[in-house]
Amino acid sequence: MTDDWADTLREQKTYYDARAGEYDDFWFRRGTYALDEPVLSQWNADAADTMTLISGAARGDVLELACGTGIFTDVLRRHAESVHAVDASPAMLELNRARTAGAANVSYGQADLFDWRPARRYDLVFFGFWLSHVPDDRFEAFWAMVRDCLAPGGQVIFVDSAPYPADEVTGPNSQVSARTEERTLGDGRRFRIVKRYWDPRTLSDQLTATGWDAQVQASEHALMLVGRARLSEAARPERR
Predict the structure, then answer these.
(1) Domain CATH number, residue 56
(2) Range(s) of the domain holding residue 42
(3) How confident is the model over 192-218, as pLDDT tens digits?
(4) Is the pLDDT of residue 74 over 60?
(5) CA angle, corner 238, sides to 233 and 239, nearest 5?
(6) CB within 10 Å: which end of the chain, N or C, has fewer?
């Protein structure tokens, strides 16, 4: 990874720690993230479908990467035997713990996901709105780490940003390259972060090339990207 990306990723970590108190506004479409109709209803429908997918997949032992304030953690822990939630931000983890207070099946870890390695394997690995923050030159290393997290027969589910308006991405093979975006907090502070919008087919092809059987598609109203992945037969470790 270049020094330029290292600087941006450090700034990205600072941004999300500082943004923790505002983060839920994005999912619930409040304040600066508010949407007008009919897009608000479309977002809410896609969000409900996403939660249904997550709750249906949350079985056994679950690892959530970049767990944030716990919007998804709270759904996962209601259906899984256990959830281990990891995030780099202490402020995010504090809010997550508050949201899941009293849940005996949730544990936490604070770590930079670009350096973190799992101590055990899980039946499901989930991450929401995280993959778009991974630079291209860290893509393979990130997915190699995810592979090391999976128990035999395990699967990965992820949700992420889709370009909006949708017509900003045209054609079945088009994509928006890895780049940075400037984000502004409510107090006026500005940060640069990594933000890379994936086209479903391009992402599926990229995952296939790195040893995954993946299905990636836009949500019904094309406001989110939803993916499932399992290790391809050739990439699965031999059982002993």
Answers:
(1) 3.40.50.150
(2) 3-167+178-231
(3) 999 999 989 999 999 999 999 999 999
(4) yes
(5) 115
(6) C
